[in-house]
Amino acid sequence: MKSNLEGIEQTLQQIFGAQKLGLEELRETIRGLEESFDLLSQKWNLQILYILFLRETTGFGELKKILRANSRTLSDKLKMLNQNGYILRSVDEGPPLRVGYSLTARGRNTVLLALPFLYYSSSNLT
Question: What pLDDT sits at residue 38?
Fold first, then answer.
């Protein structure tokens, strides 16, 4: 784990060092990160992304069963994740009409980056 964290740190230093961010650019970067963290830290959002990572395309009903969330809340979360480019919503006209959700590249990359962080955080809390 330590070597992974050191690798991540070195990569970030190379990225930000090469960009030579000015004060205003740094503020914009921080604002963008805050928006992403705010969205992803809301209840159900990371869980939805993780389920879609494991199951690829998943229907609304299956997500609702797994999460045990009410329909309105789940619908709102899925709309928000879709609007922010983390998931895709696809409609199969049927019959019957079916709606499926899957990860975008951004959503998949977010899960790949978040899982080590969550693992590290949980293993250090116990």
Answer: 80
Same domain, 67 and 108: yes
Task: Report if pTM > 0.90.
Answer: no
Where in the sequence is the domain holding 20, given as residue range(s)?
1-41
* Contact between residue 74 and residue 68 where contact means Cβ atoms under 8 Å apart: no
Strand segments, DSSP code E, in 6-107 are 58-59, 87-92, 98-103
What's the domain count of the chain?
A: 2
Indicate if 33 and 49 belong to the same structural domain.
no
- Do residues 64 and 71 make contact, with C-beta atoms less than 8 angstroms apart? yes
Distance CA 69, CA 75 (A): 10
Which of 106, 120, 8, 116 is closest to 49 using CA atoms?
A: 106
Residue with tokens 């070597």: 3
